[in-house]
Structures are given as C-alpha cells and as structure tokens.
C-alpha cells in the first residue's frame, strides 16, 4: 500500500504554493513539514504527496516516465485541478478530456519543477 509519494524540488517555497493550492482543492492540507520537506494529505487517510529537496544535496531532477496520478471526485474537479496547476506555475501536458472509450477522463500537467502529474476520474459520465 502506498503511503505517500515524493517529488523533488529545487525551490521548496515555490512548490509549497503549487501543492498548497492543489491540496486545498482536494480537501486536504499539509500533514508534515520540515525545512526541506512538506507533505500534503490526511494522516491515516488516502496516500499523500510530498515535495522535498534531494537528500544528497544535489539538484532535484525529473524522473523520465514517472507520473503521480491524483484521483478527482468528478470531471469538474479534474478541470479545476488543471486550472489551479496552470495558475500556480504548472505547464500543460494534456488538457482535461476523455482518454479512450472506457470512461477515463484526465488532465495532465507538470509542477513548476517539471514533475508530471495528472488528475483523473474513472467511469466519468
């Protein structure tokens, strides 16, 4: 079972602004915070996400093929999360819309450090 995932950042303050906004839309806030690490979610709840400076002191880099998927409540929230990401320094990787014909609806974006995320809902009507 996944407890949380981390994404690397070279600017924790900038990441905090981005993920504070995303987390607020999803109804959660910060659950842990240190000088080099912030985690969002609900203790004892669903898996959370964290932004961290690299432990080895080297610059954080983006993992090729790595993506964090955020489960939204509905198609409207997928759109709101995408809009929030764009308004907080994110970049577009695929606007909200259906993907395939099996009810998968998603939006793809990157955070300000280039980490890829998506917001999705299954069996969207």
TrEMBL record:
VOC domain residues: 1-122
CDD domains assigned: VOC_like
Protein name: VOC family protein
Protein species of origin: Allopontixanthobacter confluentis
């Amino acid at each position: 079972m996944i407890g949380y995932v981390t994404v690397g950042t070279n600017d924790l303050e900038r990441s905090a602004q981005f993920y504070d906004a995303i987390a607020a839309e999803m109804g959660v806030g910060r659950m842990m915070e240190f000088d080099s690490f912030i985690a969002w979610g609900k203790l004892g709840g669903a898996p959370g996400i964290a932004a961290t400076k690299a432990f080895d002191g080297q610059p954080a880099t983006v993992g090729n093929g790595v993506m964090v998927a955020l489960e939204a409540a509905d198609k409207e929230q997928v759109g709101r999360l995408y809009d929030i990401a764009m308004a907080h320094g994110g970049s577009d990787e695929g606007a909200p819309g259906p993907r395939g014909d099996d009810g998968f609806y998603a939006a793809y974006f990157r955070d300000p450090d280039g980490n890829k995320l998506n917001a999705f809902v299954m069996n969207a009507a």
